[in-house]
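Quick one, T. Sequence first:
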Amino acid sequence: MCEAAWELVTNERARERRGAGGLVDALAESVQAAIDSGRRMGSECVNLEHFVLQHGHHWTIDTTQPLPRGFPPGERGQCHANATRLVTQHEDLVYVEGYVLHTSLPIRHAWVQLPGGDAVDTTFAGLEHLSTLEYFGVPFQTDFLLMTSLKAGEFMSLIDDYPARWPLLSASSAELAEALWSPD
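Structure tokens:
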């Protein structure tokens, strides 16, 4: 399953369909490096970037635009907590976790998806020197997010859950169906 998904990600047409360029290329380089080195973090995906490419979507966000009404600016360095608070306060939002391309480096990050598919990032909001940022991430079901946070006792990354040895990277299709959000 892993190699078939990787072929899809590296396929030029697949990248065009996903709508992303530089960020997908940077994530794909990380996956290729893990494959070349023989390192595996999970049975289904070789690393975090592979999981995000396999299950994620592309967004761009203009961080210079004002936040929607009722969305306070988030605390810097607390993206997981900021996004989790928003989805608990607004039940029509979806928590998304993945990567943002910042100064040509992919950084693990969390944000929210609005009804209709647009995204909002309260952590980077108002940072005029950043302007439009490229995001690629995986939308998660709120129940899975809250259950995982409750078990951990903190707001944390769902994908980079190193204390539990990265369970999503080895999850079965049934387990993923309980974790991943789908518009259907």
